[in-house]
Amino acid sequence: xxxxxxxxxxxxxxxxxxxxxxxxxxxxxxxxxxxxxxxxxxxxxxxxxxxxxxxxxxxxxxxxxxxxxxxxxxxxxxxxxxxxxxxxxxxxxxxxxxxxxxxxxxxxxxxxxxxxxxxxxxxxxxxxxxxxxxxxxxxxxxxxxxxxxxxxxxxxxxxxxxxxxxxxxxxxxxxxxxxxxxxxxxxxxxxxxxxxxxxxxxxxxxxxxxxxxxxxxxxxxxxxxxxxxxxxxxxxxxxxxxxxxxxxxxxxxxxxxxxxxxxxxxxxxxxxxxxxxxxxxxxxxxxxxxxxxxxxxxxxxxxxxxxxxxxxxxxxxxxxxxxxxxxxxxxxxxxxxxxxxxxxxxxxxxxxxxxxxxxxxxxxxxxxxxxxxxxxxxxxxxxx
Length: 384
Known about the structure:
CATH superfamily of the largest domain: Metallo-dependent phosphatases
Shape: globular
CATH topology of the largest domain: Purple Acid Phosphatase, chain A, domain 2
Order of helices and strands: EHHEHEHHEEEHEHEEEEEEHEHEHHH
């Protein structure tokens, strides 16, 4: 490290254009907590480590204009505060390469401003790579999500980028490590903690799983805002400082205004007591909060759903039934373990997967058979 220290912030899983949380609210919270002159001036670099978008945004959607304007503002702020900004492409089904919008806005600012008024601080990363920061004399490993093959395949490629016996200083990733989830189905996609710790001197940051956690020098910052039920824990981003002597410090910065999702267990309550409990709860809840009521499937609240939405129309209501009380501990685990697993289609499994999907649609057997016949014709043509 050329300088005595470097200060950085890492944020991920912002999910703009989300169906449940207004983009305007998320952008306002981002500006308040991180992307403002005061905070940026205290940092040398900011990394957006994937899933800036939640999904594809139509060009006619006013949300896109709002996002473009916000990007322009923060790029200018990063220039004014001399703060480098790195943007890593996240999960394909979320970012959909729309994060290239940072580059487009940056090019517009560069071409329409005199060099003395704007000089880019942006580095956009879409591919697996190691980048060198000549100012600080540091090397950064970037690992985007959805790389071809398994996590072991990715590790082999990473080791080809880092000479044997050497290390990078930081790693910024989008994906998941083994310590984050214990699900057999996604094991081939999970990175090996020890392997990456051996390759990185200071800290490893990873996005994708929305719950923040830490394992040794690996930090999962989690999502910046709450986006769904089961995400009632603190949200925010991580600030870190690395020193020339090899030491470092980290701080989780809480987004106190994160959207509200609450779950109320009503199993042991009569309907009247449920109403009293909710009336007491909503006194401190902002409008637009999401409230989930959870009880045994025989509870009277399920036959009186209209009571809640009519009495408290400023909130979003959700109901979840469980067969037994013992299921409660499992429900939160299942909700927190929802994760994107890519569906790989090839010639050998395409017909099977198509049959499964057609079975979910309201089609006659004749229509299903006709569709599968057409698919057979296409596959035969490919084989020729």
